[in-house]
Amino acid sequence: MAGPANEVDGLGRCQGGKGLEFLQPTSLTEALELKAAHPGAVPLAGGTDLMVDLNFDRLRPEAMLDLTRIDELKQWWPHDDLIRLGAGVSYTRLVSEIGEYLPGLAIASRTIGSPQIRNRATVGGNLGTSSPAGDALPPLLAAGAEIEVASAGSSRRMPFRDFMIGPKKNALAPEELIVAVHIPKARGPQQFSKIGTRNAMVISVASFALAIDAGTRAISCAIGSAGPVILEAPEADEFIESSLEESGAWDARSRIDNSVLQRFGELVAQGARPITDVRGTKAYRQHALAVIAARTLTWAWDDYMASA
Amino acid sequence: MRRVSLTVNAVEHEAMVEPRQLLVYFLREQLGLTGTNVGCDTSTCGACTILLNGKSVKSCTVLAVQAEGTEVTTIEALAQDGDLHPLQQAFHETHALQCGYCTPGMIMAALDLITNNEDMDEDEIRTGLEGNLCRCTGYHNIVKAIQQASSEMRSFATK
Prior knowledge:
The structure holds 2 protein chains of 2 kinds. By secondary structure, chain A is α+β, with helices and mostly antiparallel strands. Chain A folds into 3 domains: 13-71, 2-Layer Sandwich (Uridine Diphospho-n-acetylenolpyruvylglucosamine Reductase, domain 2), CATH 3.30.43.10; 72-184, Uridine Diphospho-n-acetylenolpyruvylglucosamine Reductase, domain 3 (2-Layer Sandwich); 190-306, CO dehydrogenase flavoprotein, C-terminal domain (Enolase-like, domain 1, 2-Layer Sandwich), CATH 3.30.390. Chain A contains 12 helices and 14 strands. Chain A has helices spanning 28-37, 50-55, 91-98, 103-110, 115-120, 123-129, 137-143, 160-163, 234-247, 249-252, 258-271, 282-306; strands at 21-23, 42-44, 63-66, 76-79, 82-86, 146-151, 154-159, 164-166, 169-170, 177-184, 190-195, 206-213, 218-224, 231-232. Chain B has 2 domains: 2-75, Ubiquitin-like (UB roll) (Roll); 86-157, DNA polymerase, domain 1, CATH 1.10.150.120. In chain B, 35% of the residues lie in helices and 16% in strands. In chain B, strands 2-1-5-3-4 form a 5-stranded mixed β-sheet, sandwiched between helices. In chain B, a hairpin with a 2-residue loop joins β1 (2-8) and β2. In chain B, α2 (86-93) runs antiparallel to α5 (140-158) and α3 (103-116) crosses α5. Classes of the chains: A alpha+beta, B alpha+beta. At the A-B interface, α2 and α5 of A face β4 and α3 of B.
């Protein structure tokens, strides 16, 4: 009964005491049952976001649900024109095992954290955190990914744009867990770019993903870290699609005019809803987005031109 | 408290830990393996890098209870009978450290890199070390040390 609660050590770290219940299921069924019984339990995947909050005592959950022992979450397989990516596949594995099907997500994954982080961190974790700065998220939106979530006895799928609903807010119900992401295999070049204070171990100040569907001649953009959620840029999409159509560039595989690239960048910047915060000002984010959007489109279009 | 059993540097351990205990503090305080340093508590600096089932991870963002059943390798496992590991020897010879605080993490990250990548050029080594910060050396000699150790380890492996 007595005994110290949440004793804090000499370095200011809370080293437990009563209060934290640590749940370690070994199957998805067990995990969903535990989540139903403990809806307040905080799911723990790679821990690369959550553990920092815990170390700084910004978070003191009554229960944690460790998902790292569940093999079902670490699987991926192709089905139809999609890849079903288990929520617990690490970025290291994503890059080496499925990068060829999901080039945009793979490019973004290579920029996440550092090798040590990519060995632990997962797409499921990025989705669970639902930070606008989550680097895996813009490629998911650009590629038209769907999120599969489950609770004990039921599961549902929703488009990414319905999943993320605000900064660090998503449509997950308290008894639900993120199980997998269904991502269409690339039907053309995909690219990703981000701006930060250094190349590694950085939280993006602005990020941008782009997917070209060479079959339907469609281009989808997604903007990260410059709005409450990952944003689409439909005006930029429509502008570049019609410009390429009118100039005959799809068939000729010809370069995109600088004026078109510049206008595309402006439309992307206009589509953003950035704030000014510790990482950057609203004006800087808009400027950076215009630059990286034009650059990203150039890279992807170079890939398209090179593809026969 | 929860029971955790794991293998650290080829020795099996079983211990009671608080659920909130970080793996790095378990290693340092319960097992006395103080070679693994803590620099930032936010997985930014890489000083706490260890191998978990052969892969480099930052042990300040792993809970000890999550290491149940795993194989952990720390810097203490590298030297054998007083002989430095080729990486340690190369860091020594090329003057790849000044204060030394980042060195255990650098070496463990480099060990994963060398094990999983053949013939890395300088750029690949620098990219591979993106998760490890050194505030003294400017990285130049660290890269040299890893190049030297890498070729030594390869030639040893093929002998």
